[in-house]
Design brief:
alpha/beta; 5-stranded parallel beta sheet; 42% helix; disordered N terminus
């Protein structure tokens, strides 16, 4: 870069703020926008803008560094004026007009910005402005600049107006230099060139170079257009050749279209669908093979031909065979099996009704007489003409919702249903889906559009009446792409899904014959409108005896096969299975149990492969040696009666269990202290129990001064949140026990909601809670009277092992749970240590 060798000190120096620029050079006489965001630059702009003349010194940095260093600034810059200033989130937008060149004599940093002492640079005029060589140079630059402007696409009038507005040679070179596409070094060189004649030569060189670049671009553009023209001509000639070949019957494209047309004609489509298909085929036949939309239409029509518009699986309506299949595949699940057999029984009666009315014979007669089945709106595929009734309502499949904990067999029972009925099986996992297009498909206007999962599943199975499993329907997500649960409303509505319209197809498709089975773990996560469209079948957890039977019949043989073992090489005793169930797994289903059995089988397989043993019999005592210490520590019944400690029952997604409620009184002012991460409902139950005890103190044998003490209620396992109304009677029993100082029976577990007057209200999850109490070693159960019907869900083996006390009010609960308490003639009475009866003189409630 050429620095000036002399500085004109005759003019008075200026003291101006400095605006360092990166990759930008401001020329005198040129107005340009600049974006500034660095703090020193912003302070310099504010200082200059607040000054009367709004002058600032713009200078180029030697590097693009974010940091501003005075040693990295050039000496020559432009004295500029700030015309406009606008602040935004990205910084300050300026409109700056360069006035004249200047040399920085000194830079100094002050007040967080850079100030410069500047002396104006005096340009070197030519020796003789009328010199022919100088005049010719000036005219040539003006002519070349006009050519460059026109070649760049600027209007000719606008270019001439700009050229006429600047006549002075020095100003004209700065104006042209400001609009040239140059790098920062070349721009700085032009700014530092004080000789007007030399600057004219440099600018003319750059202008001519850019004109040459534009000429080269025009040449390349002409060649590309010529090649494109040749390609289009070739395409046109090929289309003509194809048309001639088609006329002569020699074209390949005509054969492909004829094959596609034959497939479409063979489909039994409704009038609306046929009209849309014919319209799309007409568009395809008018297009050339090279057209961009031709492949899209061809793919769409091929998808239409691959869908099972009237192809059905032949149903096997044999109740005995279906019952045998269900019993072979699953142990227990009696309610679910009954529901499936009920569905098959209804299907069998519907087919018999169709045969009795002669509709099946009518369809068969039509086919024998040569009348196509497509002429009858309810006809079916010839290969399956006797499989289904012709009435739409008889073909409509139910929509079931299997709800239960993980691992209880919801998905596998659906596979058994498909096997028992002879239908095809297809599973769609809905967990985590957040795009509505996954259900309804994408419109064909989008690139790579495809049908939704429902239509894709039907295309895959190839039949119109498969068993569709919508797995994890409670795990659907919502996003800005739509709500998939809302898209399922039409799919799972028997009154609407016979005209389901996929966005990709754009025509209705009948889903009424599909047997939809949805699975979920939590009903609360399913939207109410969607839940209303399905028939819910509840799956409850297995008992330990059921788990042992399932493990013996299904899990152990399967894991032996998967791990390369035979029944002669590994034998697991019943006691070892009980140890695996109670000490190494904690679940309502059997999925984790199968993993533990698989781990046990791999341990034995390793020993057999290493020739350490030939056969292994796993006893209860061998389990810790093979699998390590127990992984589960379930609650067990208390060993003795305690004052203020009651046993309750609760429900979890992996099954039921027991919990202990501890109550202790201490000196205080009658306040109630609740700990153990209790929810609002349990806190309300505790306050209701406290109020009941205070209002029935005389009946319960509680001294009034006892209420002047603080009462601390705690539920162990404080790291686990707990909530629900079913702990009401448990808390009440513990509170009354602590206040009356009478122990609670340790062999009794209870559940139920209480009111302020002492009524016991029903609760849910009775089966799981009772099973949890039985696993904990408790045989006496207290349940609300209104839950008596729920005991029928229990296995007979469990009912024989427990004694159930059905209660309607808290007095009955206390009479059964408090030691030495009883109800006599509606009164709660206690026995003292000598065995004498203490009548407290009041009714129980």
């Amino acid at each position: 870069m050429t620095e000036p060798t002399t500085i004109d000190t005759r003019r008075e120096p200026l003291h101006l703020p400095v605006l360092p620029l990166r990759d930008v050079v401001v020329f005198p006489g040129v107005t340009m926008p600049i974006l500034a965001g660095r703090p020193p630059s912003l302070r310099a702009i504010d200082a200059a803008y607040n000054a009367p003349d709004k002058l600032i010194f713009t200078v180029l940095q030697r590097s693009n560094s974010e940091e501003i260093d005075t040693s990295a600034l050039f000496v020559t810059g432009s004295i500029a004026r700030i015309d406009q200033q606008q602040r935004g989130l990205a910084g300050t937008q300026l409109l700056i007009t360069g006035l004249r060149r200047g040399h920085a004599v000194r830079y100094e940093e002050t007040a967080g910005m850079i100030l410069a002492t500047i002396v104006e640079a005096e340009e070197l005029q030519p020796d003789s402005p009328e010199d022919p060589a100088f005049v010719a140079l000036h005219r040539e630059l003006r002519q070349r600049a006009a050519d460059l402007g026109e070649r760049s696409g600027l209007p000719k009038d606008a270019v001439e107006q700009v050229l006429r507005s600047v006549t002075e040679p020095g100003r004209f070179t700065d104006l042209v230099a400001g609009y040239l596409e140059l790098g920062s070094p070349q721009r700085q060189q032009l700014l530092e060139t004080l000789s007007i004649e030399e600057r004219l030569r440099l600018v003319l060189t750059h202008v001519q170079r850019q004109i040459n670049v534009l000429d080269a671009q025009e040449t390349i553009k002409s060649k590309v257009q010529a090649e494109i023209g040749d390609r289009q001509r070739e395409i046109f000639l090929r289309e003509q050749m194809k048309a001639i070949q088609d006329e002569l019957g020699e074209g390949e494209g005509g054969t492909e279209l004829e094959e596609l047309r034959a497939k479409l004609d063979a489909l039994d489509l409704s009038e609306d669908v046929r009209k849309e298909v014919n319209r799309e085929f007409s568009r395809l036949s008018r297009m050339g093979r090279e057209a961009m939309e031709a492949q899209v239409i061809r793919t769409y029509l091929e998808t239409i031909t691959e869908l099972p518009w009237n192809k059905r699986s032949e149903e096997q309506i044999d109740l005995k065979h279906a019952e045998k299949v269900l019993e072979e595949d699953h142990y227990g699940l009696e309610d679910v099996k009954d529901r499936v057999l009920e569905f098959l029984a209804v299907r069998q009666l519907q087919l018999q009704l169709r045969d009795d009315t002669g509709e099946g014979e009518a369809a068969k007669s039509d086919e024998e007489n040569g009348q196509p089945l497509t002429a009858r709106p309810e006809a079916v595929d010839k290969s399956d003409s006797t499989s289904l009734a012709a009435m739409p309502e008889s073909r409509r499949g139910p929509i079931l919702l299997f709800v239960g904990p993980p691992g209880v067999g919801k998905t596998s029972i659906a596979q058994s249903i498909a096997r028992a009925t002879g239908r095809k099986y297809h599973r769609i996992s809905l967990g985590g889906i957040r795009d509505e297009a996954d259900i309804r498909g994408h419109r064909r206007t989008y690139v790579a559009a495809m049908p939704g999962r429902i239509i894709q599943g039907l295309k895959q199975v190839g039949t119109k009446n498969p068993v569709f499993v919508l797995d994890e329907v409670d795990k659907l997500a919502v996003s800005f792409q739509g709500n998939p649960a809302s898209a399922l409303l039409e799919v799972l509505d028997p009154a609407q899904n016979d005209t389901f319209t996929d966005h990709y197809l754009g025509v209705p498709f009948d889903l009424s014959e599909v047997l939809f089975i949805a699975t979920a773990n939590f009903v609360q996560n399913i939207p109410a409108p969607l839940l209303d469209r399905m028939e819910m079948v509840e799956f409850s957890g297995y008992t330990e005896q059921e788990k042992k039977t399932i493990a013996r019949q299904y899990l152990v043989p399967r894991q032996l096969t998967e791990n390369g073992l035979t029944t002669g090489q590994l034998e697991i005793t019943d006691e070892a299975l009980e140890e695996l169930i109670s000490r190494y797994t904690r679940e309502a289903g059997v999925r984790q149990l199968e993993r533990v059995i698989g781990s046990l089988a791999r341990k034995v397989a390793r020993r057999i492969a290493a020739a350490e043993v030939e056969r292994t019999i796993v006893e209860r005592g061998h389990v810790p040696d093979l699998l390590g210490r127990p992984k589960v520590h379930p609650e067990h019944a208390a060993e003795r009666d305690q004052v203020g400690v009651a046993t309750g029952m609760f429900y979890t997604p992996v099954g039921g269990d027991i919990m202990f409620v501890e109550v202790s009184k201490m000196r205080g002012k009658g306040e109630l202290i609740l700990t153990g991460q209790l929810g609002d409902v349990m806190k309300e139950s505790a306050r209701a129990a406290w109020s009941y005890a205070r209002s029935h103190a005389d009946i319960l044998g509680i001294d009034r001064p006892g209420f002047e003490q603080d009462l601390h209620i705690h539920v162990p396992a404080g790291a686990i949140p707990k909530d629900g109304p079913s702990a009401g009677v448990t808390i009440a029993s513990a509170v009354v026990s602590a206040l009356s100082e009478r122990p609670v029976r340790h062999d009794v577990a209870m559940t139920g909601e209480i009111t302020l007057s002492g009524r016991v209200l029903p609760i849910g999850g009775v089966k799981e809670k009772v099973l949890g109490a039985v696993r904990a070693g408790i045989s006496d159960i207290v349940l609300p009277k209104d839950n008596e019907a729920d005991l029928e869900d229990l296995h007979p083996e469990v009912r024989d092992r427990i004694r159930v006390q059905l209660v309607e009010d808290l007095g009955q609960v206390l009479a059964f749970t408090l030691r030495d308490a009883s109800l006599q003639n509606g009164r709660l009475v206690f026995r003292d240590s000598a065995g004498e009866t203490l009548d407290l003189g009041g009714p129980a409630h």
